[in-house]
Amino acid sequence: MFKSKNSNAGKETARAGGGSVTKRAALLFLSVTLVMLISALASQLLRQGEVSQRNEAQARVLAQGVAGRLSDRIAVYRAILERIGQDPGLTRLLAGEDWQALKQQERRYARLMPEVLRLRFLPLEWDKLDPDAGQPLSYASLEMLRLVERSGKPAPAEVHQFGSTRQYVALAAPIIDPVSGE
Prior knowledge:
By secondary structure, the protein is mainly alpha-helical. It is built from five helices and two strands, in the order αααααββ. It is rod-shaped and about 110 Å long. The N and C termini lie far apart (126 Å). The mean pLDDT is 83.
């Protein structure tokens, strides 16, 4: 019946402004919800990145610890091998090719290094492979022996058969004749 000018003005304002207060509130609510969701996802991604960085840092520290312990053990075993290499009885057994007595000495000295898989005393210019042994004497092992023969010093530790199920760290040191010093 009676229409006021203000009621038409309100409808036009609503149309011009984008809708009623309820629609605006819903739009505002959705916008705030979307911002909160994006913030939560960004926060989660940041936390995951921090966790990943923390895990990587922990893995690095663990690897450094393992490497340090392995390096220490190798240094100890290398020192033991150098000391064993000064045993005058070994040079006599090698010169006399007394293989049975050498095997006994290998077992005796191996007890000093419980984690060592196998200890061998070999004469100069040894060139026989042993591919079927649990810790085979391979071409890499023979090359280590040549290096020790040429230098008269222990060879650096080497990882042999890397990536296989039979990988191991190999060490080689000279047996020094106390009389000749060679």
